Each structure stands twice: as C-alpha cells, then as structure tokens.
Amino acid sequence: MLRSARLTALVLVASLGLGACSASDGDDGASGGTVTVFAAASLKESFTELGERFEEEHPGIEVTFNFNGSDSLAAGIVGGAPADVFAAASPSTMARVTDEKLTADAPVTFARNRLAIATAAGNPHGIGSLEDLAAPGLQVVLCDATVPCGAAARKALAAAGTDVVPASYEQDVKSALTKVRLGEADAAVVYRTDVRAAGATVEGVDFPEAAQAVNDYPIARLENASDAPAADAFVAFVTSPEGRKVLGKAGFLAP
Predict the structure, then answer these.
(1) Radius of gyration of the chain (CA)
(2) DSSP classification of residue 224
(3) Looking at the predicted structure, is the pLDDT value of residue 201 above 50?
(4) What are the distances in angstroms from CA 165 to CA 8, 193, 213, 253?
(5) pLDDT for residue 7
(6) 132-184 pLDDT per residue, tens
(7) Going edge to edge, which strands form the sheet with 215-221?
(8) Are 220 and 24 in contact (CB under 8 A)?
C-alpha cells in the first residue's frame, strides 16, 4: 500500500509539473490553426515580415493575408467574408466594421502614416510640391476618395489650395504607385512607406501639407474569428515592441 501511495504521488507531481510547463509555453493561449488577416494594401511589406516572424514564434499557426484597399476589405467583412483580424489604413474604414459590431474589442491604433509624392526615378519633371502637380500636361494619379490614401490626398491638396485633375483614380495605394513605376503616370500621391518599399524604382518628394493628413492605422480581432486565441496573439504581436520595430523600419510612425 505504501508503494502504491508513493507511485500515485509521483504521478500527481509529474502531472502538475507538465501542466505548469504547458501554461508557461503557451501564455497567449495560441497553439495552432490559421489566422486570416485582412490588411490595408500599404501594409503588405511590413505585415508579410510580421507574419513570418509570428509563425516562427508560434509553431503550428499559419498566417494568411488579404491585402487590398481598406474600404474593399471593410465591405467584404460586413458582407460576411471569413476573416479573423482587420488592419485598416484609417479609423473611418474601421468604423464601417465596428458600426456593425463585428469586432471583438475596441480597435487599437498600432501605427501612423503620412503622404509623399512618388515620381519616376530621378524626378524628370522636377516636381517639388503639391502645387507642381497641377502643371498642364502632367499625368497624375490619385487613390479613389473612398480609399484612405485618397481621402488623405484630398485633405492635403485642400490645405495646399491646389486643384488636381487626375488621369485616373486607383482603388488602392499600390495600384497608384504601380502606374508611376510602369511609366503610365508622371506622379502619384501615395504613402511614404510605399515610396520606401519601391526602392530605386521611384523617387519620393515630401511636402509640408502631409502633416495635416496623417492617417492612423487601427487593428482589431473580429468577433467571429475562427481561432480567437491565435487572432488575439497576432494582434498582440503587431502592437508589441518587436512589431513596432518592423513597422518603424518600413517608415511607419509610432501611434
């Protein structure tokens, strides 16, 4: 009986120890599954890196992304598209989702972004300000007014007292930048982060009115997330010091 009691005690101690190890190894409650993230197009480079780092720190969890214009993503979520996390390029587009009570918690601002003018490499037209975009014959593209970068561009142009008739309106910031990269436009008003991501293929021109049109980027886990612990863990990772370091490297401003 004594031997049996000792064996029972050893099994109990081992069981408690194993439970403690499990708790410490998975403090955020995320252990496996897939996290589907709907993210603004301007987050593509930084979130791709964050996703890779997150997967390394959370073995067994896969992160998949849908990068697009924030308004299109919000419309998809409201329409029932399966997503676990939404990262928007403006509070107004996030509000389309929160107004429908589709987020689990109040969104958190994790970054900020400001505009710049993207021109062809070498800035052949000598563009130095928003006023220069109104020059006759200059092919300028803007994001559509419903897209955060488009709304911000209009605010900046109004601050500069400049009226620009664009050659086209694009549905996301990457599309606007691509027009310049391919030589289909002389300039575009995009985010500084996108200019940086494009490297030597374009040249960026800063302008003072950009300070009056800074966009806050909110993120939130969605109420119907298929794996709430994993989704919460991803949101926590984005807002962590490591996440902000990656975003800062991409040119985003701290919230």
Answers:
(1) 23
(2) T
(3) yes
(4) 81, 24, 19, 30
(5) 34
(6) 999 999 999 999 999 999 999 999 999 999 999 999 999 999 999 999 999 99
(7) 61-68, 33-40, 85-87, 215-221, 108-113
(8) no
CA–CA separation, 220 vs 5, rounded Å?
A: 51
What per-residue confidence (pLDDT) applies to 33?
A: 87
One-letter amino acid for residue 20 of the chain:
A
Report the alpha-carbon distance of residue 117 to residue 115 in Å, rounded. 7
Cβ contacts of 229 within 8 Å, gap of 6 or more = 28, 29, 30, 31
Task: Please give the structure tokens belonging to residue 137.
Answer: 């014959």
The neighbour count for residue 9, using CB atoms within 10 Å, is 10
**Those residues with Cβ within 8 angstroms of residue 225's Cβ, 6 or more apart along the chain or in another chain:** 83, 84, 85, 104, 231
- Among candidates 57, 51, 47, 63, which has minimal Cα distance to 26? 57
pTM of the model: 0.85
Question: Encoding tokens for residue 114?
Answer: 């400001």
Phi/psi at 33 (nearest 5 deg)? 110, -165
